[in-house]
């Protein structure tokens, strides 16, 4: 009986660890997608600025909406004080 309890406890701990790893991977993937979107927006804005001279100047450090929603600020990006995971 004790051996079964120990085996079940190990199995539950492994499952818990696997679930935790999956959550971390999902979060990292989501954050990477948001960073890619922000980068794409900045590149697109730069390309449009090259095409049209009369566009109003926009700060190159402005953030996309998804990054603002998770609390990444201009200061965080400039000083690289945020992590992907």
UniProtKB/TrEMBL annotation:
Q: Identify the Pfam families for this entry.
A: FAM167
**InterPro entries referenced in this protein's UniProt entry, alphabetically:** FAM167 (IPR024280), FAM167_domain (IPR051771)
Q: Which domain of life is it from?
A: Eukaryota
Which PANTHER family does this entry report, sorted A to Z?
PROTEIN FAM167A
Q: Which family does it belong to?
A: Belongs to the FAM167 (SEC) family.
Spell out the protein name for this chain. Answer: Family with sequence similarity 167 member A
Q: Which organism is it from?
A: Chelonoidis abingdonii
